[in-house]
Amino acid sequence: MRSFEFVAPGSLDEALDAVARHAPHVRLLAGGTDLLVELKHAANGPQFVVDLGRVRGLRGIEVTSAGLRIGALVTHSEIVRSLLIAEHAPAMVAAAATIGAVQTRNMGTIGGNLVTCVPSLDSGPVLVALDALVTVVGAAGKRQMPITEFFVGPRKTALAPDEILVDVLIPAVMLGRSASFRKFGLRKGQALALVSAAASVAVEGGLIVETRIALGAVSPTVVRALRAEAMVTGMKVGDTAGLREAAQVAVTEARPIDDFRASAAYRRELIAVGTFRVLEEALAKATAV
Amino acid sequence: MHQVEVTVNGVVRRAVVSPETTLLSALRDSWGLTGSKLGCDVGDCGACTVLVDGLSVNSCLLLVVQVDGREVVTIEGLGGVEFLHPLQVAFERLSSYQCGFCAPGMIISAKALLDENPAPTEQEIRAALSGNLCRCTGYTKVIEAITEVCRARARVGGIGPPA
Description:
The structure holds two protein chains of two kinds. Chain A folds into three domains: 5-51, Uridine Diphospho-n-acetylenolpyruvylglucosamine Reductase, domain 2 (2-Layer Sandwich); 61-174, Uridine Diphospho-n-acetylenolpyruvylglucosamine Reductase, domain 3; 193-287, CO dehydrogenase flavoprotein, C-terminal domain (Enolase-like, domain 1), CATH 3.30.390. Chain A has twelve helices and 14 strands. Chain A has helices spanning 12-22, 35-41, 76-81, 83-88, 90-96, 102-107, 110-116, 124-129, 147-150, 226-232, 240-252, 264-287; strands spanning 5-7, 26-29, 48-51, 61-64, 67-71, 133-138, 141-146, 151-153, 156-157, 164-171, 178-184, 195-204, 207-216, 223-224. In chain A, helix 10 (226-232) runs antiparallel to helix 11 (240-252) and helix 11 packs antiparallel against helix 12 (264-287). The N and C termini of chain A lie far apart (55 Å). Chain B contains six helices and five strands, in the order E-E-H-E-E-E-H-H-H-H-H. Chain B folds into two domains: 2-78, Ubiquitin-like (UB roll), CATH 3.10.20.30; 86-156, [2Fe-2S]-binding domain (DNA polymerase, domain 1). A five-stranded mixed beta sheet of chain B has the order 2-1-5-3-4, with helices on both faces. Classes of the chains: A alpha+beta, B alpha+beta. The interface between A and B is medium-sized, with 28 and 31 residues.
């Protein structure tokens, strides 16, 4: 690993100051499970590394009138163990539990997962299906945006070089919304997603009144299957054939690639199967009393 | 250069390190604790697994400056030749070590599991060890050793895996 200057600020203001002074020659360190691997292999590393691990205020999980707020430095293990998240957004727990192995989950953070923004990021689909918002802070102040705007492309986000992601918010209206997540990998342990899918649904009087379908690892970034969502919204609960048809439409809304892990054709099959299953599971939760 | 102070296996250790020094490198090269192994160096194999503040982590993916002031437990902290940890006894008794390279990480992961869940099912043991690769592929005996420790503890303490 090439050497760098290391700073571990104790407050967000100090961290922002360090970033403003050294951008763009600076990298932020959260859990390090991606960054350290990158630094070990980079020909030209950053001049400065700012460790966010000691910054106060980036770690909490809380429910406020705005919704469920998860600090950027919350680890995947903390999400898996959180009773608040289990109560209000259990699909997030299901997604976090599929990330890496125990060691990775103990170190890796939700903020790091989002900022690294690989197409297969496991935190992404459920957050998209729950209309999550992210808050970023920079020298110019604080801004909040839908997570779909934060994801720009493979390893590309809307985060400016002098900004820090501080939290993720599931809006109050989505708390308790029935949602489901599925990830397909080549094995159970430590697998990258070949395809991941998440869905959330709202049901009223036997009718599906709102639907979100989010697909991971099959496009440059997490995508919503908007046409499939439009087909599902308005369906009666129990219309299995309708869900299967919508799942086929979802396949056309993704752009899976061929690579050494799987062919695009296989990924398209998985999108159909995954979309159908997450819809069915989310509906089962919505109608269970 | 940075001055760090880390409590390792109950002993305060100090070192002056360059910022890119990993915890694994400090343990092995600065403090002579060579039980934790350098395997893949990218956080996949688990041979470098240690506990930091009680949680299992890959010490190859942590900078030692990140753990300044924190508490680390390595395989050397579980037991020594004079007084082995029950997991070490079971690994030895059931010949769960083959080449032995992955064993320190396996045992630390098993300890982390049992600290949190004293009566895991076999599936839970397998899931908890999914971040520890054995290239001799000797997983069966590893699972058996951990199961034996759970059973022995259940006989003593009244807790254990479901029948």
